Amino acid sequence: MVQEAQLIPSIANEIQQIHDTVYKTFKSGVCRPLEYRRVQLLQLARMLQENADAFAEAIHKDLGKPKQEVYGMEIGAIIERSLICADSLEEWSKPQEVKPAEWATSWSPKVLPSPKGPILIISPWNYPLVLSLQSLYAAMAAGCPAVVKPSEFAPAFSETLADFVPKYLDPKAYAVVCGAVPETTKLLELRWAHIFYTGNGRVGRIVAAAAARHLTPVSLELGGKSPVIVAEDYDVKLAAKRILFGKCSNAGQTCVAPDYVLVAKNKRDALVEALAETLQGFYPTGDLNSDSLSHIVSRSHFDRINGALGKTKGKIARGGKSDPQTLKFEITIVSDVDFEDELMKDEIFGPILPIIGVDTMDEAVDYINSRDHPLTLYAFTDDAGLKQKLKDETLSGSLIFNDSLNQLAINETPFGGVGESGYGNQVLKYGFDGFTHFRTTMDVPKEAEPHIWFRYAPYSEESMKIMGAAVHLPIPAK
Q: What homologous superfamily is domain 9-222+426-437 in, according to CATH?
């Protein structure tokens, strides 16, 4: 029996000290002033801007991720959003005026956005920078200290982040803890104001259970099988190109990557052909030789993907080859797949795309509804009726028509799952709100006393009449 690695006592003490320091910092109030928050946000942007190549090289070392993907999907996004946060602090943080009933106007009720406290961020390996720092800038904007625990499967990035953070950010408020399961376990033993975890559902349950011991609120950004619908009315060549943008990015190792395709049967062969042609254009010298395609993160994940492909009863219409030395894997299209296929059991999280023909869009909707709610549902159609049907009859973290993956580029909308794909939102104001306690405050003047006499004992017929007034309010007819 293999024993779980134990945390070295000195490291356990170091984690405890980090925890104690960020709590002390929070209690001191140093993170509350808006100018402090603004400086930290600008420093975060500056850290990435001045060291963009170092971060890109580290992520390439971990994942083989092309520099363009790192700049466009990770570094650039965090710089832009950190600057937006810095410019939005006054608006987001100001007391919110409310308009109460006339009898309570003199009570001056307001809602005060208040920092929750120290935040624990547990991030994954697939987009290590954006999914570590997306929550960090939100914590900064909310006035909260934070500790980031990056994934052990992205060691080069983790070391780079741990090196730069104390050089740019307040080390008493923001820290990075590197390591693996023992370090994460120790962090989860401690009390936090909020935990944000990105990863899979199995670990998400462990995080949620650990948080429950302290009644700590949790945000879980998980994943699952994000389906794609291609309706009969849509151009299959354009659909193929846009589906593959989402599938090929990071070699399919994306929580919102298209996981499988449900396509009208009379368009299935045309779609498969269009997918193959598109991939030839993407990788003219071959997937395994291309600098535009990431490799699989580890040998264990590589073997898992190969194992799933080996069990499929579908037809490999394109791809299927891989290189265990480089961990490169061809983008693989598998046609003639049925609902019971091995590839349909779990999230693929890799470069395999199963294609399933359906007789009707109702069949596609029924199948999607028979599974856990996905993080994203993609649909390629111009049919207004089908679009409305999907809005009305399905539930997913997001519903995207006629593109894939690019919903992550929109600053003004929340990103998050529902049910098995997670809960809680992130991105700009939505992340700020997640780490903020919206605290009600009011100031009831002495002069209000003649107007609230009826609430005191001894109760009377007259006081009961006032208290019971709402029972007799007129209700409109149906």
A: Aldehyde Dehydrogenase; Chain A, domain 1 (3.40.605.10)
